[in-house]
Each structure stands twice: as C-alpha cells, then as structure tokens.
Specification:
- The chain has 297 residues and is α+β, with helices and mostly antiparallel strands.
- Helices cover 40% and strands 20% of the residues.
- The protein contains 10 helices and 10 strands.
- A hairpin with a 4-residue loop joins strand 6 and strand 7.
- The relative contact order is 0.05.
Length: 297
C-alpha cells in the first residue's frame, strides 16, 4: 500500500557532485513522492545501536543465562520467581479479594480447635484444665467467693504480671478441692511466684522446679576468677537475699561492674554444700534496666 506525501523535489532529492539536487525517490504524475508505508514502519521499528548493546548485556547476564551458578544461587532465583508468580496471581483472581479475611477465620478456628484438644489431654493430669468443666468460682457460695476475690486482689499487688481474675480462679480451684482459704492463698502465691519464665526472688531459687531461672538484683561484689574458663564471678543481691553467680567465658555476655542493676535470664541453678548458686551459660543473657531506661528517654 502506498500513500502520497507532499514533499518537494528539492527536499526529496540530494545534492550531486556539482551541487545540484538529484531525485532519489519515486514521484507520481502530480510531483508527489510515493512512500511505501510498510518499509517506512520497518525503518522506524529498527533497533538502535544502544538498544542492541543493552539487549546483549541483558542476555549475557549470569542470572538470565544461568550458567556458572552455584546450586544455592539457582535455588534462590527459582524461589524469587515462584514468589513473584504467587504474589502476582491471586487465589480467586478478583480485583477485591476476601482471601485474607477467610484465611484469618480458618487460622483462628484451627487455633481454637488445637487449644481445646490440648486442654482435653491435659485434663488427664489436671481436671480443671478440661474446657467443659464449670468455672470453680461458680461452685462457691457468695461469702466464699467474696473472700476469694479479696485475697486475689491482695495477691495481685505482690505478683506483678498476674491478673486478679487468674489468681482468683486458681484460689477457687484449690478451695473447691477441699483446701482451706489461707492454705490455698499461700499455695497459689508460691506457685505463681516461681512460675517458669518469670523473674524469681533469690530466696526462692531452691523452690523452683525448672533447671533454668530468671533473677534480678544488684551486683554487690566481684572476685578474681581462678580459672581462664570463667569470665566473672561474684554476688548478686535483691530484697529477699543474695547468691553467688558465675559467668563462663563461652557464655558471650557483656561484662558487669559492682553496683549494676541487672536481670539475668535463663541462668542455670547449681548446688554446692547445700547452697544454691547460678551460672551463666551460652543460653543466658544479661540486660541492664537502668541503661535501657536512660536510652528510652
């Protein structure tokens, strides 16, 4: 297919050896140049030198050709491409999808079912763990429930981190089992005070059932270690008492100084001549509450 383009003879031609214009195109009887649109389109779509160089660089890139790569690099590239495909294509292929909401509902329902199954199994050891058992506070009289709530409110001030509701339920369980109120209160206090994962008073180290505990206090004294395998050794003290601590060199924890307020987590209990001490191992950690508070300010 051809079309007419109004281009003059002087523009369509080019100068010859003697400076005169020479016609290089094809003209119709009216003097208009005849242009082949197909050829013109091919010339416009022809890649430039810069585009060809860039294309050659892209095709020679190691991630594109995947030659000379290690197995780890190939797996990383395949995983990235798979993630892009999964992100680009939605499950229901809709512009506005409710996939996230449906996923949350399924996850919550599965969590509730697993929790219920776990409590059913735990009921073989602790009958109060059964989710179908009536709340023990409903089995108490009004006077008994009032006394339990008063004691729970008092214990909540001595057991930070425990809610009054949790304490009252545990006390009510012991009362329903036949224990007297004061004995139930003392038992719950000792149980919650030494609960795993909580900071234990130093005087209660011997009562803890787990091998590793968390304690906090002040470094009151440091001694010179007698072995190269020991980083530090000294005494730590809180309001309830004091105990000896040993920091092993391989524990990789920061150094402490006398007077530091510290929290020692996941420290191992040791017994020597009837006394309980703690040791910091590779699983232990140290935090400085005063320093963290200063940094927060």
């Amino acid at each position: 297919m051809a079309s007419k383009n109004a281009i003059g003879n002087e523009v369509a031609g080019q100068r010859g050896e003697h400076g005169q214009f020479e016609n290089t195109g094809v003209f119709d009887e009216d003097g208009f140049e005849v242009v082949d649109e197909v050829a013109e389109r091919e010339r416009n779509l022809r890649a430039t030198v810069e585009m060809e160089i860039r294309a050659r660089i892209d095709t020679d890139h190691y991630e594109t050709r995947r030659r000379g790569l290690t197995l780890e690099q190939e797996e990383r590239i395949e995983a990235r491409e798979w993630e892009l495909r999964q992100t680009r294509v939605r499950f229901d292929r809709q512009q506005e999808s409710d996939r996230e909401a449906r996923t949350r509902r399924v996850a919550v329902r599965g969590s509730v079912e697993r929790r219920r199954a776990f409590c059913k199994r735990a009921a073989s050891v602790d009958p109060w763990a059964d989710p179908d058992v009536v709340d023990p506070r409903e089995q108490l009289s009004c006077n008994e429930l009032g006394a339990v709530n008063r004691e729970a409110a008092r214990l909540a001030g001595k057991l930070p981190g425990w809610s009054q509701a949790a304490i009252s339920r545990r006390v009510a369980e012991r009362v329903v089992d036949g224990c007297e109120l004061m004995s139930a209160v003392i038992g719950v206090f000792e149980e919650f005070r030494t609960d795993p994962g909580r900071v234990v008073p130093i005087e209660a180290l011997g009562e803890v059932q787990s091998h590793e505990v968390n304690i906090s206090g002040t470094i009151t004294q440091l001694w010179e270690p007698r072995s190269r395998a020991i980083q530090q050794v000294g005494l730590i003290e809180d309001e309830s008492g004091r105990t000896k601590f040993t920091v092993w060199e391989k524990s990789n924890v920061p150094m402490m100084a006398e007077g530091d307020q510290v929290v020692l987590r996941n420290v191992a209990r040791n017994w020597y001549q009837g006394r309980c001490s703690v040791a910091l191992t590779g699983w232990s950690s140290i935090s400085f509450p005063e320093g963290e508070q200063w940094w927060a300010e």
